[in-house]
Amino acid sequence: MENFKEKLKELERLSLDPFKPEPLREELEDIMKSIPKMSKEEKEELLRFLQKLEKRLEENHRICFGWIEEVFKRGFRRQV
Asked: Computed over its alpha carbons, how large is the radius of gyration of the chain?
């Protein structure tokens, strides 16, 4: 259980950098592989964590790609 909490903390830390998603993806894949071995309490905690993580990832997406969406909404004009 302690190792599981450490993994969640690591996931949370990795999710704070919107420009480096690869380490987060790798850690998430490792956790997903271990789901069948988890206790019911761990699964419930993981579910709560993933719900929070989803919101953070949506925010990361806005940080990384929001400027592109704004450019297309306003129209792209190249100034020389």
From this structure: 17
Q: Is 69 exposed, middle or buried (0-12, 13-18, 19+ CB in 10 A)?
A: exposed
pLDDT at 66: 79
User: Which pTM does this prediction carry?
Assistant: 0.72
CA pair distance 57, 63, nearest whole angstrom: 10
The DSSP secondary structure of 22-67, one letter per residue, reads HHHHHHHHHHHHHGGGS-HHHHHHHHHHHHHHHHHHHHHHHHHHHH
Give the whole-angstrom CA distance, residue 24 versus residue 2: 20
Q: In whole angstroms, give the CA distance from residue 78 to residue 62.
A: 23
